[in-house]
Structures are given as structure tokens and as C-alpha cells.
């Protein structure tokens, strides 16, 4: 029965991944015409997954107190920089995440347990350097320097050398979570 549940979970994750991929492609193909008419944030896709007695869901949001948008996030980078948060809406702490973006030449950074210093996209409130996620379109699987706790968020910045819409998508899997004991799930 447990293997059957894992197979069902894997199938659901494949369906969600396919949906997000198609949604991003549609946004890339048709988003340029609607970007100027859209609000700052645009919903793209949604889903959360059940595992045993909990769920895991990580989503990009515009403010740390935001409700679950069940979507990716579109940043209109007309000023070549912007802020956003990654918030843990699940019931497990998160150790890893996978991120993609659609605007080339854009560097993503984040601050742990604090916001960026006023007006800065590279320094945190305590004047420390923000942690660099990367600047490629497929940023890949990333390790949070400190696990992202249940109901908490980390502040991110996006700084680009060009203007345009940047769709930020994140995903997590069961193997990105921490058990209540603090070890990686399934390790």
C-alpha cells in the first residue's frame, strides 16, 4: 500500500510539472502582449501534495504576509529589479527548492530571516551580503542555507541587465523536505 501511495504521488508530481511547463510556455508565447495590461503579479499554475499526514507547498509571493497564491509569480522588470518572497505554505520545513526564471541576464539573491536593506538588492538588513541563487534560466535545485520553516518566508531580489517580464517558478519534492527530526525526508 505504501508503494502504491508513492506511485500515486510520483504520478501527481509529473502531472503538476507538465502543467507548469505548459503554462510557462503559454506565458512566454502570449505574455508579451498582455504584460503591460496585467497587474504586477499574475497567477500561472497551482497544486499542493499530500504526504502521509501533511503537505508541502512552496510558492513565490509579493509580500511575506500573502495568502497562498497557488501560482508562479510574474515580475514586470521595467526598472530591471524587483523583490519577492518564497513562502512555505506546507507542514514540513524545506531544505531544498528548484527554481526557474524566464528573463535572461537576471541574478536572483535572497536574505535569510530578514529583508533586504532599504534600496539594496544585494545587501540584507544586517548589512550582510545576500546569498546568490544564480543567474541562469534554469537555476536548478538549490540548498537553503537555513531550512525554511513552516509558515515562514525568505526575501528574494531579482536584478537584470535587461527589461521584460520574468516568470519565477519554484518546485519542491518529497526529497527536499525535513522530517520532524531534522533529517532529509527519505534519506
Descriptive key words:
1 helix; four-stranded antiparallel beta sheet; five-stranded antiparallel beta sheet; 187 residues; alpha+beta; 11 strands
List the helices and strands and how they pair.
Blueprint: H1 2-34, E1 49-51, E2 54-56, E3 58-61, E4 73-76, E5 81-88, E6 94-100, E7 106-111, E8 131-134, E9 138-148, E10 153-160, E11 165-171
Antiparallel strand pairs: 1-2, 3-5, 4-11, 5-10, 6-9, 6-11, 7-8, 7-10
Descriptive notes:
There is one protein chain. It contains 1 helix and 11 strands; from the N terminus they run αβββββββββββ. The strands form 3 sheets. The protein has a 5-stranded antiparallel beta sheet, with no helix packed on it. A 4-stranded antiparallel beta sheet has the order 4-11-6-9, with helices on one face. The protein is of the alpha+beta class and 187 residues long. The longest helix is centred in the N-terminal third of the chain and has 33 residues. About 19% of the residues have low confidence. The radius of gyration is 16 Å and the shape is globular. The two termini are 20 Å apart. A hairpin with a 2-residue loop joins β1 and β2. It has one domain.
Q: How many helix segments?
A: 1
Number of domains: 1
Q: What is the straight-line distance between the termini? A: 20 Å
Roughly what fraction of the amino acids lie in strands? 25-35%
Unreliable stretches, pLDDT < 50, 5 or more residues?
Answer: 17-51
Mean pLDDT: 78
Sum up the overall morphology in one term: globular
Largest sheet: 5 strands, antiparallel
Give the topology string: H per helix, E per strand.
HEEEEEEEEEEE
Amino acid at each position: 500500500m505504501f508503494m502504491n501511495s508513492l506511485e500515486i504521488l510520483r504520478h501527481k508530481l509529473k502531472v503538476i510539472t507538465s502543467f507548469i511547463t505548459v503554462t510557462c510556455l503559454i506565458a512566454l508565447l502570449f505574455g508579451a502582449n498582455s504584460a503591460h495590461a496585467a497587474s504586477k503579479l499574475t497567477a500561472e499554475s497551482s497544486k499542493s501534495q499530500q504526504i502521509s499526514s501533511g503537505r508541502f507547498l512552496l510558492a513565490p509571493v509579493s509580500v511575506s504576509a500573502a495568502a497562498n497564491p497557488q501560482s508562479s509569480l510574474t515580475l514586470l522588470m521595467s526598472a530591471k529589479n524587483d523583490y519577492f518572497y518564497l513562502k512555505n505554505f506546507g507542514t514540513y520545513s524545506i531544505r531544498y527548492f528548484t527554481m526557474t526564471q524566464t528573463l535572461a541576464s537576471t541574478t536572483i539573491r535572497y536574505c535569510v530571516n530578514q529583508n533586504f536593506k532599504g534600496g539594496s538588492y544585494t545587501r540584507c538588513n544586517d548589512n550582510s551580503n545576500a546569498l546568490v541563487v544564480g543567474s541562469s534560466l534554469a537555476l536548478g535545485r538549490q540548498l537553503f542555507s537555513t531550512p525554511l520553516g513552516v509558515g515562514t518566508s525568505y526575501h528574494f531580489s531579482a536584478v537584470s541587465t535587461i527589461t521584460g517580464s520574468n516568470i519565477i517558478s519554484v518546485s519542491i519534492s518529497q526529497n527536499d523536505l525535513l522530517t520532524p527530526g531534522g533529517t532529509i525526508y527519505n534519506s
